[in-house]
Amino acid sequence: MPVRGTTGVFKTLAAALLLAALLARPVAAQQGPFTGAPALIAADQITYDENLGIVAASGNVEIAQNDRVLLADSVSYNLKTNVVTASGNISLLDPSGNVVFANFAELTDDMAEGFIRDIRVLLSDRSRLAAASGLRTGGNTTEFKKGVFSPCELCRDDPTRAPLWQLKALEIEHDQEEQVIRYRDAWMEIFGIPIFYTPYFEHPDPTVERKSGLLAPTFGSSDILGTTYQQPYFWVIGPDKDATIAPILTTNQGVTVAGEYRQLLRDGRIDLRGSLGLSNRTESDGTIDEDVLRGHIDSTARFDINKAWRWGVDAQRATDDTYLRIYNFSSERTLTSRAFVEGFNGRNYLAVNSYLYQGLRSTDINDELPIIFPLAEYSYMSDPGIAGGKYTLDASLLALTRVEGRDSRRVSVRLGWELPYTGPAGDVYNLVARVQSDGYWVDGVDPNSDEVNPTGPTESGLTGRIFPQLALQWRYPWVRNSGTMHQVVEPMAQVVIAPTGSNPGEIPNEDSLDFEFDDTNLFSLNRFTGVDRVDPGTRVDYGLKWTITGDKGGWASAFIGQSYRLETDSVFAAGSGVEDNFSDFVGRIEIKPTYALGLRYRFRFDKDDFSVRRNELDLQVGPPALNLNLGYTLIDTAPQTNEFGDREELNWTLNSRLSRYWSAFGGQRIDLVKNIALQSRIGLVYADECLYIQAVFERSEFSDREIEPEDSVFINIVFKYLGGVSSAGASGFGG
User: Do the Cβ atoms of 454 and 487 come closer than 8 Å?
Assistant: First the structure.
């Protein structure tokens, strides 16, 4: 905001001038008339003319009170007219850090009226304001004549050179009552060259946190929408609510209106986002439906019931699969709507959720997606008891239905008990016993298939299981200190005893489909992610962890482990890494010697020949002047699911600071199986204290029905305090 703090300038200057006059006594320290704080005044000469009623200080006048300092050649106060006058090399440092310079100032003692000549202001953020004169009238209006504002630093070699950009106006008016700053006959100059003129514009003053008005527009283009223009308008409805209305004008698809409504309540908040418009839609068979009503909603609400309980709603829906990507609102593949209530009380937690899903892939059949109402979950952990033992209780209630396909109802209760123990040699043990009881009522289930909508014979009825587990966990950390280096070597093992089977085909698998064997779940009692599948049989898990740290903050760690199961039958799919008696080797390596280098490598190696089954590499190297972020993922012979198959991808981003203000970046996401760059980006950025410019070129190979691969150019220009203008491949408000 160009003239931030101008009213404060008048106030602090007037207060200091009046303070100087009233304190002009032959005493070095007095009490200030406004704040009561001690003040110091120094001058070559201080006089008081009782006949004229004038107090005057002259010659190197310096007045200090709290964080306010005033310097001037002379200061006087007319007791009869209540007018304060200062002249000659006036400078004022106020508590906010602003510095005011002037040659002459005359103000009334109540600061309702005043005049300052040749005013120059250096704001606390190094922004500058100058004007031929400043006039304050009516107690709430300040007018600057022939004003200039710029947040840009002046050239060090030639301070007289015009800054990068500046605003000039014949008149700048600050209305304190309306909290608005108005410009008349204003123009913007870049490198001293006028590029934009407006007879009038206004914006809120710095005391306003929110005010209705136009926001920065966005320009863009895409093959489907054509040229786009989005003009948001921000509407302050009240102190607790506001709205943003952002129509999107396109040359190919007409007008779509996006918007957002926000409201802060005493016990919660609401955030409603969405869009609606008429546009053409290309169907999967290539036909075009014209003037189809299309839109979306993406909203949240949270409400506190009391200190322990809250409830909320998340709503995500779209009229069709490709709408969100076309308008650049979102790239989500699945939209999730949820309503919930949850409570925390000590060591108790209870949550009741309901879910509704919408799939946006071409292969998704929404009638086969689950409708969950409700999913109630309860967890409890006791305080440590005798010998440190503690009890746990996890229970859930699920009702899952589909428009087309199998339905299920589930009640699950899992009781557990843990007993930790530390031996005299530092060896650590933990004994865990638990039993899981599950009861199901199912309809339309094929016991020999995980298909949610099977075409063959199905079964319905009651089923269930009782599944106990007993585990003994052991680890033995060895510590070694050598100078500035500290090492910990920690072997660990776990024995798990459980019955075999326990996963009958009559129990549908709804929440345990995305199994992935890695270092994070090697020692989990149930390596499945949900309740519907359990990890049966007796097994031994073992591994070795090594960590080294330095006194200067560098560190590194490594872990490798494996599992052995006694039984030959496996509930895990082929290629999962745990389908045989001996599992694959899993582990990780992490290295962080300095702030400029970081490596994380996670792996799964085949147990027989150590061939790579899974690789995940994240590398960050280099200082801000030149740094590389590299990510590599390889998944080989993984279980085929609806979500992922085999894949090998490389992600890299290179950032470089070319100079103090210039930087560049580039990056790609590459599918190494298909040998194609899925996304490529390259950009250039200029950023200084008053201007930000970003230009990005992007190539996307994504295609889905009416969405085709395309090239996009993004340009973002932001002037400090004035907002900016953006150019994008498509509009993105509310995403």
Answer: no
Residues of the chain with pLDDT under 50: 1-9, 19-36, 638-644, 730-735
Q: What is the DSSP letter of 582?
A: B
Question: Which single residue is written with the structure tokens 């005299």?
Answer: 424
pLDDT (0 to 100) of residue 22: 44
CA angle 418, 421, 426 (to 5 degrees): 145
pLDDT in tens, 374-397: 999 999 999 999 889 999 999 999
Distances (CA, A) of 705 to 286, 322, 326, 359, 364: 8, 8, 11, 15, 13
pLDDT for position 733: 43
Q: Give the span between the Cα atoms of 636 and 213, in whole angstroms.
A: 55
Q: Helix, strand, or coil here: 566?
A: coil
Answer yes or no: are the C-beta atoms of 603 and 561 closer than 8 Å.
no
- What domains lie within the chain, and their CATH numbers? 6-208 (2.60.450.10)
pLDDT at residue 633, as a whole number: 92
Query: What's the whole-model pTM score?
Result: 0.81
Q: In 3-state terms, what secondary structure has residue 14?
A: helix
DSSP of 474-528, one letter per residue? Answer: EE--EEEEETTEEEEEEEEEEEEE--S----TTS--SS------STTTTT-SS-S
The helix or strand, by DSSP H or E, that contains position 190, with its residue range, turns out to be: strand 180-190
Cis amide prior to 709 (ω within 30 degrees): no
Q: CA-to-CA distance for 109 and 76, rounded, in angstroms?
A: 12
Helices (runs of H) and strands (runs of E) counted in the chain: 2, 43
Q: How many CB atoms lie within 10 A of CB 333?
A: 13
* In the block, residue with structure tokens 């209540």: 82
- Give which of 212, 213, 142, 215 is closest to 181, Cα–Cα: 142
CA distance 451 to 101: 79
The answer to whether 239 and 231 have CB atoms below 8 angstroms apart is no
| Contact (CB, 8 A) for 115 and 105 | yes
- Answer for the pair 355, 369: CB distance below 8 angstroms, yes or no: no
pLDDT in tens, 407-436: 999 999 999 999 999 999 999 999 999 999
Contact between 330 and 323 (Cβ < 8 Å): no
For residue 22, how far is the Cα from the chain centroid? 53
| Tokens, residue 357 | 């899903």
Question: Does residue 118 come out as left (phi exceeding 0), alpha (psi in the -120 to 50 range) or beta?
Answer: left
pLDDT the model gives residue 151: 83
SS3 content of the chain, % helix, strand, coil (to 5): 5, 60, 35
105, β-bridge pairs: 86, 116
* DSSP secondary structure letters along 681-694: EEEEEEE-SSEEEE
- Give backbone dihedrals phi and psi of 8, rounded to 5 degrees, phi first: -60, -35
Q: Tokens at residue 118, please?
A: 């040749």
- SS3 assignment for 279-345: EEEECCCCCEEEEEEEEEEEEEEEEECCCCEEEEEEEEEECCCCHHHHCCCCCCCEEEEEEEEEEEE
Cα 104 versus chain centre, distance:
49
Beta pairing class for 676-687 and 334-345? unpaired
